[in-house]
Amino acid sequence: SWSSTDFRLNASYKVSDAGLVYATLSSGYKPGGFRLGGMQDDPDTPENESTVANEQVKSYEVGFKGDLSDNFSLSTALFFYDYEDMQVELDILDPNSGIVTSRLANAPEVDIFGFEFEGVWAVTDRLSLLGNYSYLSSEYEADFFVSDNKSNEVRNVLGNELNRTPNRKWSISAIYRQPVAAGDLTVSSNYSWIDRQYVTVFNDAIETVDSYGVLNGRVAWRPANGLFEIAIYGQNLTDELSYANAYSVSALVDGVRRTGNPINPRTYGLEAVVFF
Q1: Distance between CA 158 and CA 163 in Å, rounded?
Q2: What average pLDDT does the segment 13-19 reach?
Q3: pLDDT tens digit string along 161-172?
Q4: pLDDT at 126
Q5: Is 52 within 8 Å of 35 (Cβ atoms)?
Q6: 195: how many CB neighbours lie within 10 A of its CB?
Q7: Rounded Cα gap, residues 225 and 228, in angstroms
Q8: What is the pLDDT of residues 90-120, one digit of tens each?
Q9: What pLDDT is recorded for position 106?
Q10: How far from 122 is each of 9, 67, 118, 128, CA to CA, in Å?
Q11: CA–CA dist 103, 90 (Å, integer)
Q12: Which residues make beta-bridge pairs with 58?
C-alpha cells in the first residue's frame, strides 16, 4: 500500500482593480505500483525491482495576472518543482530475449525550474496580437544509473535533462476581423517554435530532436446571422520537417538504427461548421 498527506497554500493580492499577484505552495504524489512479467524482483540485488515507489513533489509558484492597460493583458508565472522518486519510463533490453521493454523506475531527485509569459494586445478594434514564451530547465540532481541500450553499458545520468523537455517555446498569433457584405471575415495566423529536445535520459546527440517551427493560417467567413462558418486553412505552410512526434534509437544488437514519425507536412483544407 502507498499513502501520502498533501497540502496546498495559496495567497493573492490585488495590486489594482485589473491585476493581482499570487503565490502558491503545494505538494502532491503519484502512487507506487508493481511491475509484472519479466520485471519481477531479482533476488541477487538489494533492490526490489518488482515495485515502484511513490512519486513525491513540492511545487512553488508566483505570478501576476491582469491588465496593464485598456488594450493589453499579461499573465506570468515563475515556478519550481522539487521531485523525489520521480517515476520515469525507461527502455530496458532483456539480454536473454533481445527484446526491449518499457520499465518504470524511480529517479531519486529531480528539479524543474521555469517561467512563462503570455500577453494579449488589442492593437485596434479589429486586430489582436497574442504571444507567449516559456522557459524550462530540468535536471537529475542525484545519482541515477540506467542501462543504455545503444552500448549495453550502465550510465549515470546525474546532471542530465529530462527527456521531452525542450528548454524554450514561443509562439505569436495575429487575428484580424473585417466586416464584409452580409457577414464577417476573420483572418488569422500563428507561428510556434520549439527548442531542441532529448528523447532519452542520456541526452546524446543521436537521440536529439532539433528545434523546429510551424506556421499556420486560416481565413473564415461567417454570415450576419451566425448560423454557420466556412473557412480555408493551411497548416505547416513552410513544410517544416521534424521527427518530434516520435523518434527512437534501437539497441546495439539491432544496429543502433534511428526511426521516427514526422510531424504533418504542409496541409490545406476546407472547413464548414454549422452552429445550432
Answers
A1: 13
A2: 94
A3: 999 999 999 999
A4: 96
A5: yes
A6: 17
A7: 8
A8: 887 766 666 777 788 899 999 999 999 999 9
A9: 92
A10: 34, 11, 14, 4
A11: 5
A12: 27, 82
Which cell numbers in the block locate residue 84?
523525489
**3-32 exposure pattern, b = at least 16 Cβ within 10 A, e = fewer:** eeeeeeeeeeeeeeeebeeeebeeeebbeb
Per residue in 156-196, pLDDT (tens digit) is 999 999 999 999 999 999 999 999 988 999 999 999 999 99
Q: Is the pLDDT of residue 1 over 90?
A: no
For residue 103, the model assigns a pLDDT of: 81
